[in-house]
Amino acid sequence: MNFTPLYDHVLLKQMEPPTQTASGLLLPSSELEKPQQAEVLAVGIGKLNKDGSVSSMSVAVGDIVLFGKYHSGEKITLDGTEYLIMKESELLAKMN
Questions:
Q1: What is the per-residue pLDDT across 50-86, written as a single tens digit (0 to 9) for each?
Q2: pTM for the whole thing?
Q3: Following CA atoms 64, 81, 78, 89 in sequence, which dihedral angle do they give, to the nearest 10 degrees?
Q4: What is the pLDDT of residue 83?
Q5: Residue numbers of the domain that contains 48
Q6: Domain assignment of residue 81, yes or no
Q7: Does residue 40 lie within any of the structural domains?
Q8: Mapped to the 3 state alphabet, what secondary structure does the chain carry?
Q9: Is a pLDDT exceeding 80 seen at residue 22?
Q10: How many domains, the chain?
Q11: Is residue 77 part of a domain?
């Protein structure tokens, strides 16, 4: 897939929810909720400033990030797979 988000947008692949509890109990699909954790698959060049300069991105391809439950990102489907596109400013944290 050749995909480059514009400016300060990032393309994310949301993590799959766990299907078992820590003690080994299987969770029914009605109880599964997608986590607010995702892998960064592509990043834009950075935020466009008023003076025309571009600020660099603080996330990179391969980073695992957290985002809010009620985000304004867009869900898109490419090649049959669902992804999220959102602005870098909507991301809450980068996992180490």
A1: 998 989 999 999 999 998 887 778 899 988 889 999 9
A2: 0.77
A3: -30
A4: 92
A5: 1-14+34-57
A6: no
A7: yes
A8: CCCCCCCCEEEEEECCCCCECCCCCECCHHHCCCCCEEEEEEECCCEECCCCCEECCCCCCCCEEEECCCCCCEEEEECCEEEEEEEHHHEEEEEC
A9: no
A10: 1
A11: no
